Q: What sequence folds into this?
């Protein structure tokens, strides 16, 4: 029986899935943050062209993540985007400059020079993962908003979702949010190294990326453990059967323990991330770590969304009025809309299948220095 | 209140800035994608490397244009949330769905296959490559379909009901939204105008190369495909423009009156072909609306209804609630003053409904729900105090409409001539008008952009002050943010977009100039 509640849970699952795909695809940003450290133009060209064939998928993942959130949980869209104005604007600024940089950087007549576009890529590479992490951090550690739907009848102050005066700046400078932001950044850098090792057939790149992988993995693990500590010791908002909301200590730890299957997936995800890294570092010529670590990272993100939204939990706690916190039930679209979109969502496996096929088709032949040297400027980034 | 107006104005300015920049690039993507796909199909069938060279030339320009369209597009989607947060809740149940479907069905298709299109020449089979090029072009059109469905819904909300318990509008009929005549006409009118724009672009660039006597055969190959697609585009744009006019007359009569500068309507209403509006004219006064005008008899009645004797209401008629059937019988329309009163009543009823619910008085709540149903169609009017506030900017709508129609008409003739010349070269080459035609082709590039943007100005300015026609005015749709914040981001966007536009134009110019000096009659995969 497909009930309204089932549809709300189903759409939270899809949002979680899109979030997981987005975090996996952030290896593009991680790679961009390494461009400046490329040892010579040939290596830089290989790195940029390797990422350049994937950047649009990351970009699309972000857009679809936003669009799907809008369609399925419009009160979140309305509250978070309109409230944390600066946070989302900074994220957008970094993605605008990314979108043109690949295509323009090596084109004659690009006015500002290749270096400018590479700086744009670096800005997006560093800032976007951190700020996206901050945005997700608010789902656990709360945000400064209130919601009053009857405001719409007051023309002098009609906005139903009100936010604190800093409009997202306070979230950026919240330590716990930032820890998640840096965790995402270093995860993206780890995945980028694994991706380069897999996608570029070049000894110099292989050797240098292994060193980078080791350093970034250590930092990533430190930030991840710190985030896990904050998360599991943090309070969360619980929704009672009659719809009352209250702060509960160790809510996320409790969610993880009471949803044992999430805990299992979470641990499997962590092991896959670490296993992919370890195999790449310690097995000679092993290049498939990206698939294990990438899949593992996606599983972990999936679980984080699960513990944020399932088990009678408010996925967007209000720090100003706990009763205004957003849950997957009080912020979702209507049953009809969720049903209509669920039919469309049946096409997602088909979409994933053609993405995998196209990816596989393009990456069967690895990128080499020779290929870059022989390719005309107009045919490469 | 002053602060509120500033936030509304800056938010509108920011959205308009983003939309206009976005629309500079999207129509070229829509049309050039098809043109490149046709060229590659010819290459695939003939295996003639001349066509490969021509395909690659236009594909290069497609890629440069595509990137900046993507950059501006993401901002539009997120601005619905950042700057129009009330809107996002009030109609997100309906509006969000097309956006999500656009992402799932179209964006992934575009972003996946565009990579194959640009980097797959040596890595995938020719058939798969061709399919990727078509899928990229089709993906762009599917994307346009869903965002235009969403836009059409804002112009003519259908398939939904207001739910007083959730204080929002909720979808009740998906197909009514997708197949609304407003959506159907908007899709065809807009997408095919993209074909026309890309056709003019290709003809214009080819004209420049012919004027310079560079790559003559490549230019004529381009001319053949570009002119054919462009002419098909402008023809369908004009035909669907007729259908659009009828739907606007039916569902947005104020927009029709504004784009005509018509204050007092008549049976057998003339259409002003050329005119200068009197800037001092306001609704309800006795000042002549035009300083000067040349009209087409019965033109507006025909345009709006296909009946030369039909009554077309003007701005004053709509405010007063005056309208007539074609045989002259008065139609009982509701004046704007009454709509405002009933809108305020609806809002009051909603307030009482909420109070009754909170007090647990379900019987009262149920009866108020029925009362609300009767007046909800005027809900949005209750946010205004006087009818004059519900009139769009007449001069901007009036002149934009004429710019669109006049340039559109010129482009129809131009593209027809280009099509004839492309296939009958002897009518052009060596003739006294040859160079003039090439110069005209170049001039048509800025003209077609002006025409395209003017169309959107008519559509969007003409429906002001509504974010959603009759339901939600701009000043209620916004986010709770400081005007200074929006002002700051407006200027940041203005600088970024302008900087990127300069780069885009310079790269295009350089690439066209450079490639035009190479041999475009041969190419390697």
A:
């Amino acid at each position: 029986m497909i009930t309204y509640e089932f549809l709300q849970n189903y759409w939270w699952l899809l949002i979680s899935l899109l979030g997981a795909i987005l975090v996996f695809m952030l290896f593009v940003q991680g790679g961009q943050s390494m461009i400046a450290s490329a040892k010579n133009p040939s290596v830089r060209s290989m790195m940029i062209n390797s990422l350049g064939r994937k950047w649009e998928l990351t970009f699309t993942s972000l857009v679809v993540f936003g669009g799907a959130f809008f369609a399925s949980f419009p009160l979140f869209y309305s509250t978070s985007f309109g409230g944390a104005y600066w946070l989302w604007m900074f994220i957008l600024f970094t993605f605008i400059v990314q979108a043109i940089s690949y295509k323009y950087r090596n084109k004659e007549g690009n006015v500002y020079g290749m270096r400018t576009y590479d700086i744009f890529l670096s800005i997006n590479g560093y800032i976007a993962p951190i700020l996206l992490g901050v945005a997700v951090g608010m789902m656990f550690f709360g945000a400064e908003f209130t919601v009053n739907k009857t405001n719409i009848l007051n023309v002098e102050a009609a906005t139903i979702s009100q936010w604190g005066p800093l409009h997202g700046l306070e979230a950026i400078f919240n330590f716990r949010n930032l820890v998640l932001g840096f965790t995402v950044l270093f995860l993206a850098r780890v995945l980028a190294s694994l991706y380069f090792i897999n996608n570029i057939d070049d000894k110099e790149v292989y050797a240098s990326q292994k060193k980078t992988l080791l350093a970034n993995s250590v930092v990533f693990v430190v930030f991840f453990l710190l985030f896990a500590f904050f998360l599991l010791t943090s309070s969360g908002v619980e929704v009672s059967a009659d719809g009352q909301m209250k702060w509960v200590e160790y809510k996320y730890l409790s969610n993880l323990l009471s949803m044992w299957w999430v805990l299992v997936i979470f641990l499997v995800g962590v092991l896959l991330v670490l296993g992919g890294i370890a195999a790449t570092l310690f097995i000679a010529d092993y290049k498939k770590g990206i698939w294990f670590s990438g899949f593992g990272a996606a599983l972990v993100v999936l679980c984080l969304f699960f513990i944020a939204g399932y088990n009678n939990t408010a996925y967007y706690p209000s720090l100003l009025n706990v009763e205004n916190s957003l849950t997957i039930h009080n912020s979702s679209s209507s049953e009809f809309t969720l049903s209509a979109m669920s039919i469309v969502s049946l096409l997602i496996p088909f979409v994933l299948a053609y993405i995998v096929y196209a990816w596989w088709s393009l990456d069967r032949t690895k990128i080499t220095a020779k290929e870059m040297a022989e390719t005309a400027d107009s045919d490469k980034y | 209140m002053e602060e509120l107006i500033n936030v509304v104005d800056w938010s509108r300015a920011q959205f308009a800035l983003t939309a206009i920049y976005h629309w500079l690039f999207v129509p070229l993507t829509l049309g050039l994608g098809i043109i490149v796909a046709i060229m590659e199909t010819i290459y695939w069938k003939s295996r003639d490397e001349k066509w490969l060279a021509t395909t690659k030339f236009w594909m290069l320009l497609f890629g440069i244009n595509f990137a900046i369209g993507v950059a501006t597009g993401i901002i539009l989607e997120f601005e619905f949330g950042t700057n129009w947060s009330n809107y996002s809740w009030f109609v997100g149940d309906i509006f969000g769905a097309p956006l999500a479907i656009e992402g799932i069905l179209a964006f992934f298709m575009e972003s996946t296959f565009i990579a194959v299109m640009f980097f797959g020449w040596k890595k995938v089979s020719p058939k798969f490559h061709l399919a990727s090029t078509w899928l990229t072009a089709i993906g762009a059109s599917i994307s346009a379909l869903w965002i235009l469905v969403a836009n059409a819904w804002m112009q003519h909300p259908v398939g939904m009901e207001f739910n007083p318990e959730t204080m929002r509008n909720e979808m009740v009929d998906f197909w009514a939204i997708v197949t609304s005549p407003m959506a159907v006409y908007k899709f065809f009118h807009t997408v095919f105008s993209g074909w026309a724009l890309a056709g003019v672009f290709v003809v214009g660039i080819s004209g420049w190369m012919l004027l310079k006597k560079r790559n003559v055969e490549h230019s004529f190959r381009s001319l053949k495909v570009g002119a054919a697609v462009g002419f098909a585009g402008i023809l369908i744009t004009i035909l669907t423009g007729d259908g659009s006019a009828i739907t606007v007359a039916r569902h947005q009569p104020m927009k029709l009156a504004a784009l005509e500068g018509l204050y007092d309507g008549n049976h057998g209403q003339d259409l002003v072909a050329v005119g200068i509006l009197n800037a001092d004219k306001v609704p309800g006064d006795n000042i002549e609306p035009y300083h000067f005008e040349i009209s087409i008899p019965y033109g507006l009645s025909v345009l709006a209804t296909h009946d030369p004797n039909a009554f077309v209401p003007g701005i004053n008629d709509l405010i007063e609630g005056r309208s007539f059937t074609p045989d002259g019988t008065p139609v009982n329309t509701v004046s704007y003053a009454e709509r405002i009163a009933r809108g305020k009543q609806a809002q009051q009823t909603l307030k009482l409904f909420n109070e009754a619910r909170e007090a647990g008085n379900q019987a009262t709540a149920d009866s108020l729900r029925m009362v609300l149903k009767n007046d909800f169609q005027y809900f949005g009017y209750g946010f205004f105090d006087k009818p004059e506030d519900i009139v769009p900017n007449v001069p901007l709508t009036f002149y934009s409409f004429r710019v669109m129609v006049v340039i559109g008409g010129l482009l129809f003739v131009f593209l027809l001539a280009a099509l004839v010349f492309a296939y009958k070269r002897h009518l052009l080459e060596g003739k006294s008008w040859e160079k003039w035609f090439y110069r005209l082709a170049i001039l048509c590039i800025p003209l077609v952009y002006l025409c395209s943007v003017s169309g959107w100005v008519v559509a969007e300015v003409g429906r002001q002050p509504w974010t959603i026609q009759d339901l939600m005015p701009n000043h209620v749709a916004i986010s709770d943010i400081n005007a200074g914040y929006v002002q700051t981001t407006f200027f940041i966007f203005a600088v970024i977009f302008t900087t990127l536009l300069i780069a885009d134009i310079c790269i295009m110019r350089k690439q066209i100039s450079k490639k035009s000096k190479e041999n475009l009659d041969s190419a390697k995969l």
In short: Chain A touches chain B through 79 residues (CB under 8 Å). Chain A has a mean pLDDT of 95. The longest strand of chain A covers residues 236-239.
